[in-house]
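Subject: sequence -> structure tokens, single chain

Hey, anyone have a minute? Need the predicted structure for the following. Not urgent.
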Amino acid sequence: MLIGIDIGNSFINIGFFTKEGLLVRKIKTHPLRSYETYTSLLKDLIAEISIEKNTYEVIISSVVDSHTGILAKACRDMVPEKLLIVGPGVKTGLIFDIPNPEQLGSDRIANSVASYELYKRPVAVVDFGTATTISIVGKDAHYLGGAILPGVTLMNKSLANGTSKLAEVVLNPPRSALGIDTVSCIQSGLFYGTAGAVERVLNEIEKEVNLTLNTVITGGLSYIISKFLRREYELRPNLTLEGLEIIYQRNRNE
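Reply:
Had a minute. Here:
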């Protein structure tokens, strides 16, 4: 059985690919825990879903370098089968038309792999997480590039930290674009602003590459922000884990 681990800036998503389907559990990324703690957490999760008698294979995607090694060690000690970490040299099925593909986040690679596999045609992936990232795959699985902007949570914190009178607000969607008090004004800016920025970037990219892009959205805030998007999209909350499974299968016999 395959276990996919996606180490993100805010959460570590752990996916168990069972015969019944994908089961997902998550833990907070910070603070960094000890090797013993991660080992215990993984054992508890495996016992919780009653798969402790199976043999396991593991694939890890990480954008938090401080966590990669310690989680890989915990997995290696628990899992006698194969462990794969997404990075340079791993087969993805993508052709990278960018100068430094080794600098591309492994989560964006997994998202791109999964979304292109979904449509088999040019696609844009928008991941609404700690950062909002846009990744573009063109014809014949060519990875073309993308864009990055601050996520809604980061913008919320930045307003509070960078001003004297504004505080963080609860991330509830605004009832309208026209705010009537400070809280609703901030909420409007965060949600309508993020959705509008993403759509503007996608529109400009489509003009530049002369392609019409299917849009796939994912990430922890995708459920909320999806309500503010005008373009058609497909919501795939576990897209990164889906991509990790595909990448693992493409490297299984390596």
